[in-house]
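Message: I would value a second opinion on how I read folds in token form. Give me a protein, with the fold worked out from its sequence. Write it directly below this note and I will take it from there.
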Amino acid sequence: MKKIIAVAAALLCSAAVFALDVSIGARGVFDIPAGTSIAGESDPTGDFSTKPFAAFGGGAFAFANFGLYSSGTGSVGIQPEIGFLYNQTRFQRESNNITYKTTTKYTSFEMPVLLTYRINLGTISITPEIGPYLSIPMGKLNTSSKVTGWGSHSDSYNINSKVILGGIIGTSVGVKMNDQLDFVFDLRFMTDFQKLTTKENSRETDIQTRRGLLFGVGVQYNLSK
């Protein structure tokens, strides 16, 4: 993992040095789990079943885009970002006529590095984006559960996962306000490639593999004009 980070840092430094066009920006995001895999959700014995439910999270990101190549109305760039996400997942598990409704919550520090291709269409631009990210869980995993006939309870667990590798694919739309300032709106799909795990008393437990849709709104300012 350290080698990956070192290579990524070197590439970003090179992009900054040779960039033809530089923009910076910030965006707020709204997060909906989409395909998050809950540990133990499939049971070959049929003793229990698990169903995910809608849950909502959010966060904020800062980014810089380094334009590396331009041809006609299109330009290729590298876009590093840093930000925070509040992650929330809700699911229901049924076993022996008992229903467990559980919500998990944790905060993570996110570092995507995206390859972008910006298509300029006058006052509007469309930018497909794809790339990896590193996600660093912060603090503890907090859970709250409601059990049929037993009431409710809350717990917190030490997160064992240090750094989680994942990937993003999506598209952003920019609306030009003037020569330097754009409003940006984006839709992205993100997926972790590794499971989130906890560790209590030397016992590791798989929790989930995060997947979600991110809806973003923000501004982008071109420093090269």
User: Anything to note?
Assistant: Residues 160 and 202 are 10 Å apart (CA to CA). Residues 42-48 have pLDDT under 50 and may be disordered. The first strand starts at residue 21 and ends at 33. The radius of gyration is 20 Å.
